Amino acid sequence: MSKPTNDTTFFDGSIFLGIDGGGTKCKAVLMDHNQTILGVGISGPGNPVYGVELAKNSIVESAKIALEQAKSKYLTLGDLHLGSVIAGIGLAGANVPQMYKEMSEWKSPFKAKYITTDLLIACLGAHNGRDGAVMISGTGSCGYSYVKGQSTIIGAHGFPQGDKGSGAWFGLQAVEASLLSLDKIGPKTSMLNFLLEELQVNNAEDIVAKFASKPSSIFASVANVVFLAAQEDDQVALAIIKEGAEYINTMARLLDDTTPPRITLIGGLTAFITPYLDAELQLRLAPSLSPPEVGAVLYAIKQNALSARKIPNRC
Amino acid sequence: MSKPTNDTTFFDGSIFLGIDGGGTKCKAVLMDHNQTILGVGISGPGNPVYGVELAKNSIVESAKIALEQAKSKYLTLGDLHLGSVIAGIGLAGANVPQMYKEMSEWKSPFKAKYITTDLLIACLGAHNGRDGAVMISGTGSCGYSYVKGQSTIIGAHGFPQGDKGSGAWFGLQAVEASLLSLDKIGPKTSMLNFLLEELQVNNAEDIVAKFASKPSSIFASVANVVFLAAQEDDQVALAIIKEGAEYINTMARLLDDTTPPRITLIGGLTAFITPYLDAELQLRLAPSLSPPEVGAVLYAIKQNALSARKIPNRC
Fold first, then answer.
1. Does domain B167-284 correspond to CATH entry 3.30.10.20?
2. Do residue B185 and residue A254 have CB atoms under 8 angstroms apart?
3. Which of residues 137-196 of A touch B (CB under 8 A)?
4. C or N terminus of chain A, fewer CB within 10 Å?
5. What's the longest Cα–Cα distance across chain A?
6. How many CA atoms lie within 13 A of B174 on its CB side?
7. Where are the alpha helices (DSSP H) in chain A?
8. Residue A242: how many CB atoms within 10 A of its CB?
9. DSSP label at A48?
10. What local confidence, expressed as pLDDT, does residue A1 receive?
11. pLDDT in tens, A140-172
12. Average model confidence (pLDDT) for chain A?
């Protein structure tokens, strides 16, 4: 750890912790009330669906890393500890009532904590705390809008039955079409060659071995194969992209019904899929302003202000 | 257990045990060399991929049940025990070299044992030990031919990346299309109503909960939804069936290249999908003559005869 610099910035008021607890990693950010980033941290899985204790440990671990970073940077934060921060915690499993209950009842080391879904913090982050809609195309896919206090979710049904237009969905289409091509049952596709190269294998059995009983993220890791083949004008790949893009186009139309002031596409597939969306939608897509963990801070600031108003002033 | 009847049929020569070891159950049949069924037994999972010890236990258990049944029926089999039967064992995991090795090295309680794949015993059963081809559409799907000692496998890549035209594949298409319909992203389909009724749920979240992190057999259990909707002329269901049937039509054409004297469609989807296959293929499809466990007996009889020829007669 580097020694504290001689930065003596004075932080007035509360320090906020933003947590984005996902299935593979947990991200933390420490900010003051002016939204200055003081420190960041990353740890292991933070989705309580895969283990409540593991999630709690990951949250605390990432918070500690962010805290150490902040203290190493700002001398005036020397006294800062976990018990002095107000946490906003967005969790992929928070929509499951039992998970929400268990995480809400957690006696965390933080001064206060506000639990919500990964979708709300993503949306608050993308629009810097204002109303708006997000479409997410990462390992999974879904649409979400938060307008006038009202949440709307579209999709988010998981893999393989849902998550169309996501990395896992594109990857599965690529593997399926490649195997059909290899078996001479489906049309030829250059996705097969890209896939064999990507996986460093040379037959169907070895392709299958890479995916059998694996999580959806393994399929998402080969989604690029579809877009590589499309650049070579591969018709099978282009048909897959058309289907995935049409799903996102339709999702945008449904989100429009909730009258969001802004709409944003986020997630790892954003750069790949955007050029294939409806031209009109491409023009309308607003850039994401902040990542989900910053959205979690914005959520904590808002909830903290609301809760302060509810408590009568004792002075 | 019922008392032995006074049947004093005399069994000349060896008694054979046929085993069909699948992922959910293990089937056993005891037969004499004239292919008279003496007894049958069913036990738990017999696919060594899901546990080698479990598979061995299931094989022995199903064999014991078949043996007891045979002894209760035929007085002359009173002395029969596991150590006096010659076993043909077809296993879903036998194509995996490590599984084949472990099962081959097993010091089984049988007099002799011959291990092979579930596909070969299914094919031998369907054609009563003669050359032929089978297309299987059960939980999974694949094509297989055994002609002049040569095995050919088509598909069999597993779920969700392969197994097109199988129960799991039809079930997944039904769930996917129903969720899209529910979200108003995909076209209306009566599969949604059949699915909600079948699962006794009324929203997307509860549909998803039935399938999340479940084996492919759970998807296969709702494959009927596609065929129910098709009977009502549901266009989404009919398009799914067309795609699945086309896969099987193409598989038949590829199997034809191996010049099988007979071709048979087996598995739980057979009755559902047959009416949608190419008319010419429907006419050509030969009925299955015996189940896979009987094919395992035929395999044991053949291998036993071959092995007897290799050992010099000591008399």
1. no
2. yes
3. 154-155, 157-158, 160-162, 164, 172, 175-176, 179-180, 183-185
4. C
5. 80
6. 33
7. 52-73, 97-104, 118-126, 167-182, 191-199, 204-211, 216-220, 224-231, 235-256, 270-273, 279-284, 292-310
8. 12
9. G
10. 45
11. 999 999 999 999 999 999 999 999 999 999 999
12. 93
Among A14-28, B79-93, B149-163, B297-311, the minimum mean pLDDT is found in B297-311
pLDDT at A315: 37
B291: alpha, beta or left? (left if phi > 0; alpha if psi -120 to 50)? beta
Residue type, B32: D
Specify the pTM. 0.88
Residue A299 burial (10 A CB sphere; 0-12, 13-18, 19+): buried
Q: Does domain A15-128+291-310 have CATH number 3.30.420.40?
A: yes
Show me where the domains of chain A are located. Answer: 15-128+291-310, 167-284
Question: What confidence score (pLDDT) does residue A314 get?
Answer: 43
Strand A132-137 vs strand A263-266: parallel, antiparallel, or unpaired? Answer: parallel
Q: Quick check: B166 and B138 in contact, CB under 8 A?
A: yes
CA distances from A244 to A217, B146, B290 (A): 17, 40, 45
Neighbours of B100 (CB within 10 A): 17
pLDDT at A265 over 60: yes
pLDDT bucket at A313, cuts 50 / 70 / 90: very low
The runs of H, that is alpha helices, within B152-223 are 167-182, 191-199, 204-211, 216-220
| Residue in B161, B183, B207 closest to A155 by CB | B183
Distance of alpha carbon B170 from alpha carbon B229, whole angstroms: 12
Same topology, domains A15-128+291-310 and A167-284? Answer is yes
* Phi, psi of B123, rounded to the nearest 5 degrees: -70, -45
Q: How many C-beta atoms surround the C-beta of residue B104 within 10 A?
A: 13
How far is residue B282's CA from residue B288's CA, in Å, rounded to a whole number? 14
pLDDT for the residue numbered B314 = 43
